Amino acid sequence: MPAWSCPRIFDDRSRYLDRFGTLLALTCAAVITLSLSGVTAATAGIKGPIATAVVSVFVGLTLLLALRASGVARTWVRLADAVVGLGMTAALLLVPVTLVEQTEARAIDTQAIMVTWVVLSVLAPVVIVRRLLRHREVTLRTLQGAVSAYLLLPVAFYYLFLTIDTIQGADFFGDPQPPTAFMYFSLMTLTTVR
Question: Do the beta carbons of residue 153 and residue 188 sit within 8 Å?
Answer without folding.
Answer: no
